[in-house]
Design brief:
Shape: globular
Oligomer: single chain
Number of strands: 17
Strand content: 25-35%
Largest sheet: 6 strands, mixed
Distance between the termini: 25 Å
Helix content: 10-25%
Length: 312
């Protein structure tokens, strides 16, 4: 409970110490962006990678419609993501890899650099050896190493989309490595990087994904965001983490609290990231833009230290 979902036109929402940070749905263009997709290949994904032949309906059979092509649950999800993300990538090629492979669940199996335009011809049958554990940190290391090599080719920013179906076995290592990455970014040794966790299937541990996504890092802010594949209604939600306050979505707007009091006025331009103070006890805020009003319920406050004593 307590985690309100963003409603359109918002794609991300945080509340901490009476301050709201709301990201508007925006299709960003980021110069020099190098994107990647990492697919969960842990053993629990076995059924999702299994190919099944979709059956023809009786009417299709009567009309002599061709037998539909066999597919698995992962393929269509990865295909549409790849097609969209390739339009954001600096050269239209994405690093695509399986993670959590091998007995230890620590191997990464790189599929290759794939083009968005060929997306329908790609098959994603799963890794050669599915893993016994879901360890994400090796995939993050793989992407960071790859991005460092791409800087010489013109990469100025990185974003890796990580598809998972369940619970990570190494959340503490993921957080520790994220902190290292944030330090490297702050020091200028790495370009700005973001990670997007996308949950697929029915056994996602959303609380764990949220816990990782809510971490903030000094000088960098949020490195992570998370999405649930079935809840994505617009492809731009996938890259909400790339949206920043320099991007403009409208010619101005006004924010009101739930009592109708003006909290902030934007003259001339409405940035894609809105930051404002909210009165204590307020349950929602309303954005008025172009004569339309959008009301967003507020989540519980983010707390970063409540779990500290649980870490073993």
């Amino acid at each position: 409970m307590g985690h309100e979902k963003p409603v359109e036109p918002f794609s991300d929402l945080h509340l901490e110490d009476g301050k709201v940070r709301a990201v508007l749905l925006h299709d960003p263009t980021v110069e020099g962006l190098d994107m990647a997709i990492y697919m969960d290949a842990s053993g629990s994904m076995k059924d999702e990678y299994d190919y099944t032949q979709p059956s023809r309906t009786f009417v299709e059979w009567l009309r002599g419609a061709p037998q539909k092509e066999a597919s698995n649950q992962v393929e269509p999800q990865v295909q549409w993501m790849l097609e969209y993300l390739a339009t954001k990538d600096r050269n239209g090629l994405l690093r695509v890899a399986y993670w959590a492979c091998g007995a230890s669940g620590k191997d990464v199996e790189v599929v290759g650099e794939l083009k968005g335009v060929d997306v329908k011809s790609y098959k994603f049958p799963g890794a050669q050896k599915l893993g016994n554990y879901t360890n994400l940190t090796p995939a993050l290391r793989d992407y960071v190493k790859y991005l460092k090599a791409q800087v010489g080719q013109g990469a100025r920013r990185g974003c890796a989309v990580i598809v998972t179906d369940g619970k990570l076995h190494d959340p503490d290592e993921v957080k520790a490595f994220s902190a290292e990455v944030a330090k490297e970014i702050s020091a200028g040794r790495l370009p700005r990087i973001n990670f997007v966790l996308v949950g697929v299937g029915d056994n996602i541990d959303e609380e764990q994904l949220e816990d990782i996504a809510h971490e903030e890092y000094p000088g960098v802010g949020h490195l992570w965001c998370h999405r649930i594949a079935q809840e994505i209604t617009q492809v731009a939600e996938l890259v909400a983490v790339l949206v920043d306050e320099t991007m403009t979505v409208a010619a101005g707007g006004t924010i009101y609290d739930d009592k109708g009091k003006i909290l902030k006025s934007y003259e001339g331009r409405l940035p894609a990231v809105l930051e404002f103070d909210i009165p204590e006890g307020a349950e929602s805020f309303t954005l008025e833009v172009n004569g339309q009003r959008y009301t967003q319920p507020l989540p519980d406050e983010d707390h970063h230290d409540e779990d500290e004593e649980d870490h073993h």
